[in-house]
Amino acid sequence: MSFFISDAMAEGGAAAQDPGLMGFLPLIVIFVIFYFLLIRPQVKRAKEHKKLIDSVNKGDEVVTSGGMVGQVEEVQENFVRLKIADNVVISVQRNAVASLLPKGSLE
Question: DSSP labels for the chain?
Fold first, then answer.
């Protein structure tokens, strides 16, 4: 009878050991999933938007993040002047440019 009790004590003691790397494995898997589903696509979009902003030139037709559509009249360091109607020119930040339109879209 004492033979069975000593085996049970040995099994309970072995289960209390440090799990090591296997304890961190779920956290590592969650981080990898977040990286590929959230972080990587956001960085890619940010690079594409910076490339778009750097490529804006006079005469381009653009849409701002606020929904304004206009033709670029002047490109400054931090601002872009847009002609949105006859005799109406506004200034918006370069970062507010959301997308370029094909030439002739405004006509």
Answer: -HHHHHHHHHHHHHHTS--THHHHHHHHHHHHHHIIIIIHHHHHHHHHHHHHHHT--TT-EEEETTS-EEEEEEE-SSEEEEEEETTEEEEEEGGGEEEEEPTTTT-
Q: Count structural domains, the chain.
A: 2
The per-residue pLDDT of the chain, averaged, comes to: 86
In terms of residue numbers, what domain contains 23?
17-54
Give pTM, 2 decimals.
0.69
Same domain as 38, residue 21: yes
Write the CATH number for 66.
Answer: 2.30.30
